[in-house]
Amino acid sequence: MHGRICVIGLGTMGRPMAGRLGSAGCDLAGWDSDAEARKGMALASLEETALEAGTVITMLPDGESVASVVESLLEQRDDRIFLDCSSIDVATTRHLAEMAVAAGCGFVDAPVSGGPEGARDGTLSFMVGGRSDHVARVRPLLDIMGRRIVHFGETGSGQAAKACHNMICGITAMAVLEGFALAEALGLDPAKFYQLCAGAAAQCWTLENRCPIPGVVPEAPASNGYAPGFAARLMAKDLRLAQAASEATGQPTPFGAEAARAFSEFAEANGGGLDFSSYYTKLRVQPDETGND
Fold first, then answer.
1. Domain containing 34 — which CATH number?
2. Closest by alpha carbon to 93, among 189, 101, 236?
3. What is the pLDDT of residues 139-180, one digit of tens each?
4. What are the residues whose beta carbons fall under 8 Å from the beta carbon of 98, sequence distance 6 or more?
5. Is the backbone of residue 215 left (phi > 0), alpha (psi -120 to 50) or beta?
6. Structural domain of residue 206, as residue ranges?
7. What is the CATH number of the domain that holds 250?
8. How much is the pLDDT for 287?
9. How many other C-beta atoms are found inside a 10 Å radius of the C-beta of residue 182?
10. N or C, which terminus of the chain has less Cβ within 10 Å?
11. pTM for this structure?
12. Catalytic residue list contains 282
């Protein structure tokens, strides 16, 4: 029904999302700016790889990258639909959708939540914006890759939902990381503290999937050298998008602003390539800093 599908952006999220589509029998091609990432999935150029694709899925780090792809492919054919699963700003999303429709194409914004684990298992949550007829065209693909698909309304509303959602995630992450740092400073057993929180009011996704103490949750990034996961620089970017929305609407978000500041400073100082839970290493007070032996 969709013909060939081209997934552009074969990183931590895009690669397993493409894998789900391939496993479901979709005719699949893929492209990434990194030559190693696109091995076995791409032709000589982005344009050549995407030429036969009726659906182009983008999973890219920022709005500029998405715009570059859409603009370069817009004139190839007038019957394709763009499904952007990146996290970018609302204004860019609406501008690209207008360009796509003017060229006879469709555009749906569908940023995701669920991390690489959800992408691998097909359990992602999609926050969707776009015309109903465009959403209906890509819905079968969303159902392959995700478990929860919520259509919020017009183009850009998916990105708006993602900004609000990830602001909650960032604020919650700060609480989890600070809580564990204080528990360790007080000499509590981190595994026992985790067991308490996981079954009490402090339970949340970040606690269970991003526990910051190495070894407590074997599958968490902390137990694997803080390998992402969701990189700190991406958390910082999403929190800045939420702050841009806060400023545009005049709605104060003081906790969101503090989370954006903290993660942005951390990512800038450390390159931001490690999982966002690595912020714990900045928070944690070493024994010699407490005045205790």
1. 3.40.50.720
2. 101
3. 999 999 999 999 999 999 999 999 999 999 999 999 999 999
4. none
5. left
6. 160-290
7. 1.10.1040.10
8. 56
9. 14
10. C
11. 0.90
12. no
